[in-house]
Amino acid sequence: MIGLVEHAARHWNEMLRAHAGADPESLSPFDRHRTYVVVATTADVSRADYWVSSDALYHPTLTEPWHRHLGPWHDTTTLTEPARSLLTAARFCADGAWMSEATGVFAAESLDGVQRQALALVDAAEQNAAVMREEEART
């Protein structure tokens, strides 16, 4: 099972790198989240993808490959709480979209609107961070 999870987590990481054209460490938290939103709302996913990811809930040792491969894409530690919350909300939108598609439960006719809304959350997080930097610079 660890091999399956490792393969799935590595595959997600590869899809993200291919879309971004870069490693996550060379991107801003906002660009990493934009990449994740777009990939998660456009990737061809299956019930097997959902099963492999959700099995970590029952076997905590299976979370390590996910953290290692996707953790850098979701890292928000350098940001203030409002920006982190907005990026987390965007990620949750994307997560819900691909999970719904993978399971077929309440699948959307189109994920275009979900993607637009999630990207708007990323944009709001980036604006929030810019405002905070400006306020810090003035003080």
Topology (elements, then pairings):
Elements: H1 2-20, H2 29-42, H3 47-54, H4 63-74, H5 81-103, H6 112-138
Structural commentary:
This protein is mainly α and 139 residues long. It has one domain (2-138): Tetracycline Repressor, domain 2. 74% of the residues lie in helices and 0% in strands. It has six helices and no strands. The chain has helices spanning 2-20, 29-42, 47-54, 63-74, 81-103, 112-138. Helix 1 (2-20) crosses helix 2, helix 1 packs parallel to helix 4 and helix 2 (29-42) packs antiparallel against helix 6. The longest helix has 27 residues, at 112-138. The chain is globular and about 55 Å long. The N and C termini lie far apart (53 Å). 31% of the residues are buried.
